[in-house]
């Protein structure tokens, strides 16, 4: 009975926690510019994420190690430190983007500009980390995040042509604007396959004391939770393709994105969008802050648990305090959150090999997983997607930067 | 081998170094006209807050001004730049005026401006097609 | 036992299962006529940073003199105190007394406890 409850909660939280500013922005840009054509990238990213999340849970359940624990042990300190630097820089940028998403949602609701919201928002995120427990953060934020299901309602109400939706699950290249197409594809992959989600999930499995008996449950949570989550991203893309594209709207700024649901749901669309972004980005900001603090604490062997009082794991609490407050600074200086989002998503893609390749080695190591090691299917799927996103990133990021 | 790779790379870089083409700038202009139109329509239906609408209209106005300034330098020959200029100036003024009307809650005048904005948008779209045709 | 695989970088826990860092270095005694013998496990500090580059080790020593808890010697735990080697290395020591938690306690006292709601590290 307890497991069924946990299972339901697990699926619900992964659905509610799936969307964040990265997935919404990239999917909306894709739909507004290229119609359904980039849907296949969301599919690809989601499939890869399902495999990775399942692996993260399995590693924790079988070996009682989080990914970071195992990485430090298996590859030694110098390599671990190298990965730490890379991951923390990227995760920090994503955190800035998420805080920006919250601040922008508040801006469109109140009219008060986002730089003014940066500090209050980051203090609120910090306060929840300081006072809250792990289950409060995981469940509370994700339950509120269920408001993002309104994107699915909007997409359905706009009446998409299902045969062309289905057809765009097969990769194609556009006739023109190929550089932009590549860059958005890279950003979508970065938004779907977020390494911080793996670190967060594997730490959560340890906090919840998973053992081998959780392996089937882990499989169902990863599979169905991420599948539903992927549908949400696709719904954003479809809604943008139907509501924004005919008007020639491109999603370069947040106020433009806010018009995403006003056609489909005239009365509530605007407010549902603002609330979706508010809750989704809030949940993501909490998860990323925790993931960064976990990364340090587990890598250096400190005490860590979101359920302890801050002074009982002082270094862990110190890390997230500093990170969250620092993340408010760029926003106070009026750095555009949408730009930070696009850059951080593309960078996530480019650094995926750094996060995933050592993880794949661990997942094939009998020392940690015994007979529960990866099979060839999961190895192949993940390796191909990671390689693809890396190659795409290396080609399209320079093009985008220099093209301005 | 290495020379070939360098050549490909430098070719890619020169491609990328190009400033936005005229038709790309036309796309941005259409995007901002569409934004002003959609935000205006939503406000008339009482589905968006006043402040958001005003800020979005102001943002559209500023963006239109900025893109318009760069556009005329890169316009290919043979495009009717006079009517483009007048359509852009007119719609910019209308968007600015709409932003003011939001605060006065003047829906009838707002609706009139919105309709003429839509007419200008259609005109700009036609011109954008001709820009694209001339560029190729 | 394979020292690098099974000991180095392993999580260290004390009698009360309190995390006390990771094994950042090992001290091996090389006798002239005897077999090499593992004598100590080192925790944190320059030993860790030296593994990336010797200059980083020196830098960390310098910085530690300017800021943070005052401790002259690196934390070394005699190998005889190692109870079991498994997922973690269980040590027959008290984490706070060993010095491995100096930084944790320093940050708790100087920063975390001064923020409202931080609690106190003295509580159990």
Describe the protein's architecture and organization.
The complex is a heterotrimer of chains A (404), B (136) and C (124). In chain A, helix 3 (39-63) packs parallel to helix 9 (178-192) and helix 15 (337-363) packs antiparallel against helix 17. Chain A is 77% helix and 0% strand. Chain A is mainly alpha-helical. The longest helix of chain A is centred in the first third of the chain and has 44 residues, at 67-110. Chain A has helices at residues 2-16, 21-34, 39-63, 67-110, 114-131, 134-145, 150-157, 162-167, 178-192, 195-207, 215-243, 254-257, 269-300, 314-332, 337-363, 366-369, 376-403. Chain B is mainly alpha-helical and 136 residues long. Chain B is built from five helices and no strands. Chain B is elongated. Chain C is 29% helix and 27% strand. The longest helix of chain C is centred in the middle third of the chain and has 13 residues, at 54-66. Chains in contact: A-B, A-C. At the A-C interface, helix 4 and helix 14 of A face strand 2 and helix 5 of C.
Blueprint of the fold:
The complex is a heterotrimer of chains A (404), B (136) and C (124).
Chain A: H1 2-16, H2 21-34, H3 39-63, H4 67-110, H5 114-131, H6 134-145, H7 150-157, H8 162-167, H9 178-192, H10 195-207, H11 215-243, H12 254-257, H13 269-300, H14 314-332, H15 337-363, H16 366-369, H17 376-403
Chain B: H1 2-17, H2 22-44, H3 50-74, H4 81-104, H5 107-135
Helix pairs in contact in B: 2-3, 2-4, 2-5, 3-4, 4-5
Chain C: H1 3-7, E1 11-13, E2 19-29, E3 37-43, H2 46-50, H3 54-66, E4 75-78, E5 82-85, E6 88-91, H4 95-98, H5 102-110
Parallel strand pairs in C: 1-6
Antiparallel strand pairs in C: 1-2, 2-3, 3-4, 5-6
